[in-house]
Design goal:
CATH superfamily: Ribonuclease Z/Hydroxyacylglutathione hydrolase-like
Largest sheet: 7 strands, mixed
Shape: globular
CATH class: Alpha Beta
Order of helices and strands: EHEEHEHEHEEEEEHEHEHEE
Distance between the termini: 5 Å
Helix content: 10-25%
CATH topology: Metallo-beta-lactamase, Chain A
Radius of gyration: 18 Å
Strand content: 15-25%
Number of strands: 14
């Protein structure tokens, strides 16, 4: 199963707009993998994970054919992951979407999208945008054509049901998307027991420097992300063949892509970047 990173930054992107910090200036100077859009992903050519403020740019930059998109999986409602504005243009008055697509999102996102549709006088709900809304339940698998979607409760965004996702296709290839989470609750860990992963994507929002490297609150630091990987290995989810990649990188961590690679190399963990492709 193919996974493409459409973005690998935390909420401000890198370089962050308006920011004059040394890391943002260095990122602009170095370019390449140091330039990061907000975190999101494309599975094969048919599934988007998150739809943030860079979605329009990402679709064009990576030559994504919107006619092939069958579903969007949303993790949570924070504005770096949920951009309702560019979804509104699916209204038939502004564009001509060729098919309805699934929209998997928690109650807060679905309510906010319906509100935006009404305020924009584009109908009454997400249905007016040729979207079929589904509210995932953590731990309850969803079968959508060839894709099995297992929502996993994340430790993030108090007041809503933030989600990570375990995705499996017909050939039993499994990908874990685990950004925007702290240390999972016990029931989430159990969902991964003896489910070997092809790819595990883990966040490192809080960076590599103490004390934030140990952070396990509503985000993970680098050392916490390594412990997260090790916990998945204990459960039989991460094996010797699993590609483990960190992402959701903030400009506040103060290091370049290359410095992050050097940090994680001894642990056998790769660093995500915009455009990275993994899987078969």
């Amino acid at each position: 199963m193919k996974l493409r990173f459409l973005g690998s930054a935390a909420s401000e992107s890198i370089p962050a707009i308006w920011c004059e910090c040394p890391n943002c200036r260095k990122a602009m100077e170095l370019g390449g993998k140091n330039i990061r859009r907000r975190t999101s992903y494309l599975i094969e050519d048919h599934t988007l994970v998150d739809f943030g403020p860079d979605a329009n740019w990402q679709m064009k930059e990576f030559r994504i054919d919107p006619a092939k998109i069958r579903r969007i999986l949303m993790t949570h409602s924070h504005i770096d992951h949920f951009n309702p504005v560019d979804l509104l243009w699916r209204n038939g008055e502004f564009s001509r979407p060729g098919r309805r697509i699934g929209f998997y999102a928690n109650a807060r996102i679905l309510s906010e999208l319906d509100r935006r549709v009404r305020e924009g006088q584009m109908g009454e709900s997400a249905h007016s945008l040729q979207l079929d809304p589904v509210e995932p339940v953590p731990g309850v698998p969803i079968q959508d054509a060839e894709l099995t979607i297992l929502p996993v409760r994340a430790a993030h965004a108090p007041g809503e049901c933030a989600l990570n996702y375990l995705l499996k296709n017909r050939d039993e290839s499994r990908i874990l998307i685990a950004n925007d989470t702290g240390w999972w609750p016990p029931e989430s860990w159990e969902l991964l027991r003896w489910r070997p992963l092809e790819v595990a994507v883990i966040e490192i929002s809080m960076g590599i420097r103490m004390p934030y490297a140990e952070e396990r609150g509503t985000h993970l630091g680098a050392r916490a992300a390594i412990a997260f990987r090790d916990k998945l290995a204990e459960l039989g989810a991460v094996t010797a063949s699993t590609r483990v990649v960190v992402t959701h990188i903030s400009h506040h961590i103060g290091v370049t892509h290359e410095e992050l690679e050097e940090y994680f190399k001894p642990y056998g963990i790769a660093v995500g970047y915009d455009g990275l492709e993994l899987g078969r």
